[in-house]
Amino acid sequence: MNIRLWLKISMLIFAALALSGEEAIAELKIVATTQDLASIVREIGGDHVSVTSIARGYQDAHYLLAKPSYMVKMNRADLLVYQGLQLEIGWLPLLIRGARNPKIRIGQPGHLNVSSAIDPIEIRGIKIDRSLGDIHPLGNPHYQLDPENGILMANLIADRLTELDSENDSYFKNNLDHFVNKLEIKIKEWRKRLEKLRHKKIVTYHLTWSYFFNQFEIDYGGVIELRPGIQPTPKELAKLADKMKRQKTKLIIQANYYVTGFADILSQKTGAKLLVLPASVGGVPDAKDYIGLFEYLVSKFEKVIPAL
Amino acid sequence: MRILILILCGLTFLALAMPVAAQGKASSDLLKRVEALERTIKKMKQRKKARLGGLNQVPSADSGTATGAFRGFNPAISVNGLFLGTYRSEENDNRNAPSATGLKVQEMELVFAAMVDKYLWANLVLSLPEVDSIEVEESYVDVVVTNKLSLRAGKFFQFFGRHNRLHTHQFPFIDAPLVNEEIFGKNGLTEPALNETGVSFNVLAPVPWFWEWNLVVLQGNNEALLNAPLNDDLAYLVNTRNLWDWSENTTVELGSSFLYGKNNIGGPNSSSRSAGGSLQVRWTPATRLRYQTLIWQTEIIHSWRETGVNDITGRNNSTEKKGGIYSFLQYKFDQNWWIQGRYDFFGISKLKNEKNKNRYTALLAYAPSEFSALRLQYSYQDETVRAEHKVMLQLNFSMGSHAAHQY
């Protein structure tokens, strides 16, 4: 085997690849980390953007693997849009480095942390350690589940699209106004439809629903995963079951990317109904876009209200 | 007269009613304008908030110390620890045996990583093997030149195959594969194989799948294979890696590596070469069963080391050839548990007096969180004199801000 010949051939191929140019394309190429962000980008960007999402709606974005195929998408992107608040901290930094794309590095216009548009809740600050589980010290990252945050996210995304493609400024603004108006009308409608859920106690698997609960004035009846990312012990489950019986909590909800074993046990012990729901656009086929996600969630909650 | 009065009253009424009607219409218009203004103000506030938010960095959890030094620019620091208990059925009368029966702190590893400026990302890894010495395991900078080309310069685990790039705490098994130890040198359980100072040029090919090329110019200090006598005899390495998404749940990766450099065995013209190939198939469900994973990985490495010219006959001495292969299967069946098995074979090529080596390894792991794992490993190896049984129990833990490992 002539390894020196192989080395020379490899160097020639290498040089050809390194010097190959890029074709110019009119639309902005955008990579979003979640389908919620991708949906909002599509609403604003319309025909002037092509968007791809890394995490699928039925995946837990905390625990994605940093597959090299994602780096290929990010290598060609003009803009990276991500949720932040350390939701993607387990995999996104590795992908950004591996993508080798100077445009999407931190500090560049092509790097957009959407959490900077909203006021996070459940900020833990610096007095934390890993004995508390996989917590997010800067705040709960599932803010997309408050539709009013969707308005703030849309505004920030529109501003960044305008910065990157100023020629289509008025197009993005029109789309933004259209999306925001539609969302504002729907928010009023959803609040009315979920009025009877106000101040009801609901148990969840993870702290996924905090922003949703805030918006629709629902109370937490307890959390199954007491320490995020760490499965509950039998003792913790029993304690929660007792609490549910005392408080007469009749509903457990969880995102559909978690196993239902623990929630099933709790449901059997307490007689509470278990509702498995999508926490993201694309989590179920009917949740095709951002407004569609909330429409799906509200209709599911409406059906269980009589039993609460 | 009455008609006149009636007409006058009517006119007066109209005169009074028209402004009221006009006022009503004006009020209604005014109300609409106010509502429109409120909506505009609300939108402007939202846009201002979003614009200000876009300018802000993610807030730092710690703003400073009493000295005024700002800790926000400190590198990400993490520590990895490996504690190991070993039982070997052989060499228990040899106090200096590598991987001897006993207990030890196998390694502590300190990692510092940070963006230096807009262009450079730097990484420093210090290893304390058996906590009685300290060495620089890796120290390099990465820079992205274009979106096709990036560079790495410094001391780092070379891009040869899959296993060679790994730090000890990342090893799929507690020990390294036989073929890596035999070809690149072994030094107990902590010493990596091909770890050199060099400059790497890295290209991501413009194709729809992940196809990476690495061209590395190395110092060539590896004593088992390289270590040229002349300063200007550098070594060269080319590595390619292809990864395809077979499906949403399955990836297939194929890699190849070629290494060339001079060695110090047979004079300044003696060279060494090595070639390797790797295959990995990984299945990880995207949905609720995401805790399950199945990985099959195989790697084959071969080396040729020229040994110079015979002083008496003037003929070339025979080239030392070595070659081996390993293959392992890992199955993660729960969030916290996995099992795996590996077969090592060294003997595709070997030195004259060497026998083939076969090793069979099984491992069971429990990880209570992503940051710690307890691993129990049993291996059986047929050695030159007697077959050996080895049992190892390792605690692997991580603290601080440690970056995710390569896929």
Question: How are the secondary structure elements laid out?
Answer:
The complex is a heterodimer of chains A (308) and B (407).
Chain A: H1 3-19, E1 28-32, H2 35-45, E2 49-53, H3 68-75, E3 79-82, H4 92-99, E4 111-113, H5 147-164, H6 169-193, E5 201-204, H7 210-216, E6 219-223, H8 234-247, E7 251-255, H9 261-270, E8 273-277, H10 290-304
Parallel strand pairs in A: 1-2, 1-3, 3-4, 5-6, 5-7, 7-8
Helix pairs in contact in A: 2-5, 3-4, 5-6, 6-10, 8-9
Chain B: H1 2-55, E1 76-88, E2 102-115, E3 120-129, E4 135-144, E5 149-157, H2 178-184, E6 195-204, E7 210-218, E8 235-245, E9 250-262, E10 271-283, E11 293-305, E12 320-332, E13 337-349, E14 357-369, E15 372-382, E16 387-400
Antiparallel strand pairs in B: 1-2, 1-16, 2-3, 3-4, 4-5, 5-6, 6-7, 7-8, 8-9, 9-10, 10-11, 11-12, 12-13, 13-14, 14-15, 15-16
What does this structure look like?
The complex is a heterodimer of chains A (308) and B (407). Chain A is of the alpha/beta class and 308 residues long. Chain A folds into two domains: 28-189, Rossmann fold (3-Layer(aba) Sandwich); 194-307, Nitrogenase molybdenum iron protein domain (Rossmann fold, 3-Layer(aba) Sandwich), CATH 3.40.50. Chain A has helices at residues 3-19, 35-45, 68-75, 92-99, 147-164, 169-193, 210-216, 234-247, 261-270, 290-304, and strands at residues 28-32, 49-53, 79-82, 111-113, 201-204, 219-223, 251-255, 273-277. Chain A has a four-stranded parallel beta sheet, with helices on one face. Chain A has a four-stranded parallel beta sheet with strand order 6-5-7-8, with helices on both faces. In chain A, helix 2 (35-45) packs across helix 5, helix 5 (147-164) runs antiparallel to helix 6 and helix 8 packs across helix 9. The radius of gyration of chain A is 22 Å and the shape is globular. The termini of chain A are far apart. In chain A, 47% of the residues are buried. Chain B is mainly β and 407 residues long. Chain B has a domain at 140-400: Porin (Beta Barrel), CATH 2.40.160. In chain B, 15% of the residues lie in helices and 46% in strands. Chain B is built from two helices and 16 strands. Chain B has helices at residues 2-55, 178-184, and strands at residues 76-88, 102-115, 120-129, 135-144, 149-157, 195-204, 210-218, 235-245, 250-262, 271-283, 293-305, 320-332, 337-349, 357-369, 372-382, 387-400. Chain B starts with a helix and ends in a 7-residue tail after the last strand. Residues 55-65 of chain B have low confidence and may be disordered. Classes of the chains: A alpha/beta (308), B mainly beta (407). Chains A and B meet through helix 1, helix 3, helix 4 and helix 5 of A and helix 1, strand 6, strand 7, strand 8 and strand 9 of B.
